[in-house]
Design a protein that fits this description.
Elements (H helix, E strand, L loop, with lengths): L1 E4 L3 E7 L2 E6 L2 E4 L5 E7 L3 E11 L5 E12 L2 H6 L4 H18 L3 H6 L8 H9 L2 E12 L2 H43 L1 H14 L12
Antiparallel strand pairs: 1-4, 2-3, 2-5, 6-7, 7-8
Length: about 210
């Protein structure tokens, strides 16, 4: 029997139930009987954990999902360690998410769960299932609708208060300027007369100034 293994495949070779080895890409001639060949796809694939409902440290239940890239690195372990390697790794990620979110407050979770490197428990589960795992991270955090509405209302109120404060500051500045101008005009009557004349002229009118007679 001749078998061709593609570049993205590895074939685990058993004979009479015993492991013979792993066939690398290329053509292989197999003689005799009792052979079992299991083909493993070693291409990188997306691994996703759907949103999990988990309570935070302050008792608010959020939905958190995760994602990574996985690739079979050890075909024998992938076949022999567990009946369902994907489910095995999936449970390890779920357990890590629960433990992590339980230890954080809602504000900390919303701010983002940063993952600089793959957690040890997840890396160990991936290795046991024959995977290498890269680009692991928390993908989405969904908070309850009432929390989102309350947050939006708070942000809106803060912005409205900021606008009102700026408006009040502007009004105070205008009043202060007017008060300063009134003080100057009160102390300098001639300046007040000239100002009145300028205002009248700008509106097409005129001001007649009568000098007091001796």
């Amino acid at each position: 029997m001749t078998i061709t293994v593609m570049r993205h495949e590895r074939v685990v070779h058993y004979r009479h139930g015993a492991l013979v080895g792993v066939l690398e890409p290329g053509r292989h001639r197999i003689r005799g009987r009792g052979h079992t060949l299991r083909t493993i796809d070693t291409r990188v694939r997306l691994f996703e954990v759907r949103p999990q409902e988990i309570p935070t440290a302050d008792g608010v239940t959020v939905k958190v999902s995760a994602a990574a890239q996985v690739q079979v690195a050890d075909p024998v372990a992938h076949l022999e360690h567990t009946a369902d390697p994907h489910a095995f790794l999936y449970d390890a990620v779920k357990a890590w998410l629960r433990e992590t979110v339980h230890a954080l407050t809602l504000d900390e979770v919303v701010a983002g769960i940063r993952v600089d490197e793959t957690p040890l428990s997840i890396a160990a589960a991936a290795s046991a299932a024959g995977y290498t795992l890269t680009d692991f991270g928390v993908r989405d955090v969904v908070v309850p609708a009432e929390i989102r509405r309350a947050t939006e209302e708070l942000v809106t109120a803060q912005r409205q208060a900021q606008v009102a404060l700026e408006r009040a500051r502007s009004e105070v500045a205008v009043l202060r300027a007017m008060a300063n101008s009134a003080k100057v005009l009160e102390d300098h009557p001639l300046l007040a007369t000239l100002r009145l004349a300028e205002t009248a002229a700008s509106h097409g009118g005129q001001v007649i100034i009568e000098r007091p007679t001796a």
